[in-house]
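Below is a typical protein record.
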Amino acid sequence: MKILVCVSKAPDTTTKIKFTDDGSQLDSNGVQYIMNPYDEWYALVRALELKEAVGSGSVTILNVGPAANDTVIRKGLAIGADNAVRINAEANSAMFIAKQVADYAKNEGFDVIFAGKESIDQNRSEVAAMIAEYLDLPFISYASHMEMNANTATIKRDIEGGVEVVEVETPFVVSAAKGLAEQRIPNMRGIMMAKRKPLNVVEAVDFEDLVVPVHYELPPEKSDVKLIDPENMDELVRLLHEEAKVI
């Protein structure tokens, strides 16, 4: 089984978000970056489990980004991926990323293409669906359980009020949600082996972005909490009428 796992770099969840003075991008000064958890904990680990169950095949991780992303990519190799590819470009939009991934994958013969359901910094949930569209492949989103039987995958995904079960034949694209796998911590052997595993750098294909972020801003600061004496219902009613805002 030949599997591709798309991974992205994201700020650590404890990062205090701030933007550059012109609001054009995240201010990365002092920011600690990690592999996006949905890509690492669920997509990558489930891909490795599928390969291990079959007993053969390969797992390739792919990232679109600059050389600074190599540290994050090497962690994926330490967890167990066989090789890695970095497309050498700034990831400015979901469509740009999807185009680069699809162009690389189109002639590689991958059985399954995994991605996390979303990145924890952008929360867009767009890239995996766009990859499937570019490659004209079936797409299943928010997978929480997945089993393979030969070339057929049985996938469970959470929907409003229940769980949907679908079957799909390879090749296909799937986005991974919580529950698809359990996090793996790289051990010392894996870390040492990661240094010797191939990380192939390829240049991006030309692509004109149709949607380009132009400005970021933080939401307004929350006002102080007002504590009302439980015996003073008149004041509570007044505040609800005069100062409370419906969001």
Residues 2-220 form a domain with the Rossmann fold fold (CATH 3.40.50.620). The chain is about 25% helix and 25% strand. The mean pLDDT is 91.
